[in-house]
Every structure is written in structure tokens, then in C-alpha cells.
Amino acid sequence: MEEIIDIHTHITPNVDDGARDMEMSLEMLRNEVAQDCKRVVLTPHSSAFEWGGPENVKHTYEQMERVQKEAAREGISVQVFTGCEIYTTRRNIEEILQDLNSGRLPSMNHTRYILAEFSTSRGTMDDAKYCLTRYLESGWIPIIAHAERYYRTFTTVENIRALKKMGCFVQANYYDLDEEHDEEIRTCTQSLVEAELVDMMGSDAHRIGHRPPKLMRGVGYIRENCREEYAENILWRNAEKYLKL
């Protein structure tokens, strides 16, 4: 059995609302490995690259590099890759595209795939479709970050199916499948997975004491409720194939 992959984390220390320091980052990586996850994509919020000028951007990139070096030094058997969770709105989409094209914002492991986040409380299907179309027109392939969390704005099975037909990919959070306390989010996640609309999985881990890496119950749900081939695809094969992990 292949180990699982986590394509959405805030493990990079001291750059956003994720890990506070390197010690916490390494503890989070140890937790990932203990749950059979040995390939992790670091996806700081795009604000970590956009605010504070060139020095702040340099700091964020350097911190991501440090995570891999420190993990190796500590003997943690994990591969770490770079990425970004890009907060996306109609208002900022053109600036985002400029930042992606210039390299200010990183794509997922230097591929043409990007992780696109939307507001969980504002916006519509038309807004999401407009922004995702702009990504696609510009040669970037959007992965909709934790799609289940937009159930108040645009996520339904029908809408997600339509966005996938456009060429978008979908990421869901492991813990939202079986551990999320909000029943609507949990039900939405299960509906997307059972309709085979999810392409990749992530933990969206932030800190040890707040939204730590929780994967195994979600993995168990997928293996128990999905076809074996589809389960393997969303747990690791798609991320390996498309993100070159």
C-alpha cells in the first residue's frame, strides 16, 4: 500500500497563521509521518508572499527551504514540496495572475497547478467561475482548496461537477470527512467524495493545538466508502501524477 499525500498544509514556520516556529513545524511533520504521510506540500497563505515587500517574500521562500533541511537533519523521513494557498476574488484575480507569472507566488511544486482558495462566506458561483476561467485562460490549472467549505456560497455537487468539466481540480480536507463538528461541512465533504468529484486530499493543518494534521479517520472513510481505484487516486496517485511529487 502506498503512503498517502498531503497537498495542503500551513507547516512553514512564522509566515502565516500556521506553525509558530521550526520546533512546531518538525513536530507536525513527525505527526504526518506517523500517519503514513511522507510527501507533504507546504502551502502558506498567499498573504505570506504579498505583504511586506521583497524581504517578506524572500523570508517565506527561505522558511520553506529550511523546513526540508531541518527535517532531514532531524532524520524525519518526509519529502517536502513548495506551494501556496492563493486567496482568490474577482477583485484580485488580475494581480494574482501577475504574481504567478512573475514567480512572486509559487505554483504547486513548480507545475502549472495552483491551489485556489475562496471566501467561505462571500461570493457566488458566477464569481468562482469567472476567477477559475481566468486561471485556465492564463495557463494555470486551479485546484479548488477545501471545496466543501464553500457550501454557503457555491459548492454543490452540480456546481463542482460543472467546474471540473471546465478543467478544474478539487481538493478536500481529510478531517472534514469524519471529524469536522459542522455537520453541513461534513455532509458536503462526504457528498463530494462519494460522487467521485474530489481529486486530491490535504490536511489544511495549521498548528499542533489548532487544526493539527489529522488524516487517518478521513483515510479510513475513503477506503471504506469508495472504490479502491478511486481511493488510491485521491489519496496519492493524482498528486503524484499531476504535481510530480
Describe the structure.
- It is a single chain.
- The protein has a single domain, classed as TIM Barrel (Alpha-Beta Barrel), CATH 3.20.20.140.
- It is built from 9 helices and 8 strands.
- The chain is globular and about 45 Å long.
- The longest helix has 20 residues, at 54-73.
- Strand 7, helix 7 (183-194) and strand 8 (200-202) form a beta-alpha-beta unit.
- The chain has a 5-stranded parallel beta sheet.
- It is an alpha/beta fold and 245 residues long.
What proportion of the residues form beta strands (DSSP E)?
5-15%
Q: Approximately how much helix is present in the residues?
A: 40-55%
Structural class by helix and strand composition: alpha/beta
CATH H level, superfamily name: Metal-dependent hydrolases
| N-to-C order of helices and strands | EHEHHEEHEHEHEHEHH
Mean pLDDT: 96
CATH class: Alpha Beta
In short, what is this structure?
The protein has 245 residues and is an alpha/beta fold. It has 9 helices and 8 strands. Helix 7 (183-194) links the parallel strand 7 (169-173) and strand 8 (200-202).
Write the layout of secondary structure elements.
Elements: E1 4-9, H1 22-34, E2 37-42, H2 47-50, H3 54-73, E3 79-82, E4 85-87, H4 93-102, E5 113-117, H5 125-137, E6 141-144, H6 157-166, E7 169-173, H7 183-194, E8 200-202, H8 216-225, H9 228-243
Parallel strand pairs: 1-2, 2-3, 4-5, 5-6, 6-7, 7-8
